């Protein structure tokens, strides 16, 4: 699990600058506000911290109000954007080999996310999940941008032979949903597809049968040697509790279990629990705290009754919810709803 101050490649976020310039927004002023060096936006090897990315996304949205920024950025991210990983992908023999290569070295592409890949005789599945904590807006931005970027790289790899695809995004349907229908005619898109933050892209064809035109086994060996050397330099270790809290907070209805969270990280329930204990917390404590925070938010908005709030959070009845709420707040959820309104 990576830390929230993890360094990530700046080259992907430099594309935000291209969009801002087209929209007439002062890029240098934005970078100054969020304390990011302009040099990092032009240096292909530069990195910035996840916390800086979070501030950048927040500031850009504040200034532009664009809901489709991630859609636009993802379309600009070609396979070549991935440096040596992209070089290896483009020189792979088949789409299957290219996507396996990307999954193996995805930590060099986007260290704040994990990629899993599986291929079969009639499909290729790419599954992306966050492994660091970030704000809701920043997380939604990344999920949409990664989905669009995954589609773009499959197009780059297969040329004009990209098969039909299915794109599942955990984010709710965005304001700019018509762009999906208009620009992705051969892609079936589903929003709100998972209770935990994720992106899943399924290519509806045999990935081993899709040969790549630039295949070069020697170039692939060079790329792999370089990627192996680079991956040793990427720092690891860190805060599982931050990621668990973020994931619990993102869930719209109910809360994922410890088993479900562990499966997302491809580790056992016992291992995840042990990591949380080392950080001085537990799933039970995190789930209780996040559940109470969400309950307070829903009660304060006034759109839900206490009973509806209870069911939305996975409680069997109002009485159990009221007892849990009172144990944390010291008073009833009904009183909280009335007082905050």
Describe the structure.
With 341 residues, this protein is an alpha+beta fold. It starts with 6 loop residues before the first strand and ends with a helix. Strand 3 (113-120) and strand 4 form a beta hairpin. Helix 14 (283-301) packs across helix 17. It has 17 helices and 7 strands.
Give the helix/strand layout.
Elements: E1 7-9, H1 14-22, H2 27-33, E2 47-49, H3 50-64, H4 69-76, H5 83-90, H6 95-104, H7 106-109, E3 113-120, E4 123-130, H8 136-158, E5 165-169, H9 177-183, E6 187-191, E7 199-203, H10 217-231, H11 240-250, H12 258-264, H13 269-278, H14 283-301, H15 306-312, H16 318-329, H17 333-340
Parallel strand pairs: 5-6
Antiparallel strand pairs: 1-2, 3-4, 4-7, 5-7
Helix pairs in contact: 4-8, 5-6, 5-10, 11-14, 12-13, 14-17, 15-16
What key phrases describe this protein's structure?
341 residues, alpha+beta, two-stranded antiparallel ribbon, 11% strand
Helix coverage percent of residues?
Answer: 40-55%
Number-wise, the strands total 7
Could you give the distance between the termini?
Answer: 39 Å
Number of helices, where a helix is a run of at least 4 consecutive DSSP H or I residues: 17
Q: What value does the average pLDDT take? A: 88
Brief characterization of the structure:
By secondary structure, the protein is of the alpha+beta class. Helices cover 53% and strands 11% of the residues. α5 (83-90) runs antiparallel to α10 and α12 (258-264) crosses α13 (269-278).
């Amino acid at each position: 699990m990576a830390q929230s101050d993890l360094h990530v490649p700046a080259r992907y976020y430099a594309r935000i600058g291209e969009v801002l310039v087209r929209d007439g927004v002062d890029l240098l002023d934005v970078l100054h506000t969020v304390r990011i060096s302009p040099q990092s936006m032009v240096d292909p090897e530069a990195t910035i911290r996840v916390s800086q990315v979070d501030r950048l996304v927040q500031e850009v949205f504040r200034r532009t109000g664009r809901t489709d920024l991630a859609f636009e950025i993802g379309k600009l991210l070609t396979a070549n954007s991935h440096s040596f990983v992209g070089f290896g992908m483009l020189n792979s023999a088949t789409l299957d080999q290219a996507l396996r290569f990307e999954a193996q070295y995805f930590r060099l592409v986007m260290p704040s996310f994990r990629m899993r890949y599986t291929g079969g005789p009639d499909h290729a599945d790419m599954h992306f999940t966050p492994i660091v904590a970030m704000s809701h807006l920043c997380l939604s931005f990344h999920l949409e941008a990664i989905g669009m970027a995954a589609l773009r790289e499959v197009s780059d790899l297969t040329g004009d032979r990209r098969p039909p695809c299915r794109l599942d995004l955990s984010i709710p349907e965005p304001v700019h949903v018509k762009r999906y229908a208009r620009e992705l005619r051969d892609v079936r898109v589903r929003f709100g597809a998972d209770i935990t933050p994720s992106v899943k892209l399924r290519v509806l064809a045999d990935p081993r049968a899709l040969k790549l035109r630039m295949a070069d086994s020697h170039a692939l060996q060079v790329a792999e040697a370089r990627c192996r050397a680079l991956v040793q330099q990427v720092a690891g270790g860190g805060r599982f509790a931050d990621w668990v809290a973020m994931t619990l907070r993102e869930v719209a209805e109910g809360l994922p279990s410890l088993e479900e969270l562990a499966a997302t990280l491809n580790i056992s329930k016992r291992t995840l629990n042990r990591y949380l204990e080392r950080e001085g917390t537990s799933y039970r404590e995190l789930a209780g705290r996040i559940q109470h925070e969400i309950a307070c938010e829903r009660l304060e908005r006034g759109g839900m009754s206490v009973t509806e709030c209870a069911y939305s959070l996975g409680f069997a009845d109002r009485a159990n919810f009221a007892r849990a709420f009172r144990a944390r707040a010291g008073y009833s959820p009904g009183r909280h709803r009335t007082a905050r309104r």
